[in-house]
Amino acid sequence: MSEQSSIISRPELGQTSPGSGLSADNLGYEKGLLRQMSLTRKLRGLLKYLWVRLKGGPMSVNLEVTLLCNATCDFCDYWKSKDPSKVTDYDYLDAIKKLNPMTVTLTGGEPMLNKQLPEVVRGIRESLGFVYIGMVTHGSLLTVERGMALWEAGIDHISISLNYMGREHDQERGIDGLYGHIFSLVPELTKKGINVIFNTVIMRDNLDHLIPIAHMARSIGAKVSYSCYSDFKNGNETHLIESSHSDLLDNVIKDLVRVKSSLGNIVNSSWYLKQIPAYFENTLPKSCKAAGKWLVQLTPEGNIKPCAELPVISGYTDFKPVSKKIDCNECWYSCRGESEASLRVGRVWELIVRAWKNT
């Protein structure tokens, strides 16, 4: 638990950040999840989903655009890398066309270190009949101008990592002033119509920040996607949620499921959220249905990994989706859990309904 829990209050639904020009009453979360889509694009998306299901994946590709990072998080070692490889070192568009997924997420390292991102986004958008494009960044290098360049190139959302409200976030990332930069930047992005989603990792240290982040995000026009901490990246067990915190975690998850419907800005499926206690209790099924089949990681060398943490299995030209579940239960990242959720009828219907409301 955070030592600052006593000073963090929950923003009310009508509260907005100073100068944001936004009102929680007119944000219209229930009218849309992401970038506005024409009827033609919606139909293409539905047909693409059915086609990907029939061909057996992949549904999602995490595209590593660089391995470098300017943060110093203790749960990730990307910042220690000196490898200059980047996505444009190989024919990434050929790789994306061959994989032909529903979604592509630009990742790193820190993707904003790659100055060619608008070109990458535009190329992906123009290469596929339907594709949904996102990016995950810690946000220190993001500006309104760079955000607009990505939006105009065709990105559908920008995810900004945010695990704490306040200076604890700066300390976690090793970047002074990061939280203040994010809090002043995001309202400017959302006012321009850019879809911003906070990417919040659930861990022992920030259980008291999870609900306030959802309320704060709503007040400045943003959404939230929750994921779960794993020590699989570098063996750091410090942030895992132990059994002594299980009751608190259960209550927080129940609250998240409850406010998901009332706030309208939590993009996770309820199914994913409800599995989180079982993950930390190590009682999830001992196999992963997503990695290497519905979800793959594309490295800056053009190689395929089943997920971010597992080793390379092939080059992209030789890739075939794995035919068996991978015997692994090391994570419950949202990319894994929501890939599995997307195979469930309830989640598919939820996404169809929200997309159709997006006018």
Could you characterize the architecture of this molecule?
- This protein has a nine-stranded mixed beta sheet, with helices on both faces.
- α3 (117-127) runs parallel beside α4 and α7 (210-219) packs parallel to α8.
- The protein has one domain (5-357): TIM Barrel (Alpha-Beta Barrel), CATH 3.20.20.70.
- The radius of gyration is 19 Å and the shape is globular.
- The protein is built from twelve helices and nine strands.
- β5 (196-202), α7 and β6 (223-228) form a beta-alpha-beta unit.
- The protein has 359 residues and is an alpha/beta fold.
- The longest helix has 18 residues, at 246-263.
Q: What is the CATH first-level class name?
A: Alpha Beta
Number of domains: 1
Structural class: alpha/beta
CATH fold description = TIM Barrel
Please name the defining characteristics of this protein.
alpha/beta, TIM Barrel, disordered N terminus, 12 helices, 359 residues
Helix and strand arrangement:
Blueprint: H1 39-55, E1 60-64, H2 92-99, E2 103-107, H3 117-127, E3 132-137, H4 144-153, E4 157-161, H5 167-173, H6 178-191, E5 196-202, H7 210-219, E6 223-228, H8 246-263, H9 270-274, H10 276-280, E7 295-298, E8 303-305, E9 314-315, H11 334-341, H12 345-357
Helix pairs in contact: 3-4, 7-8
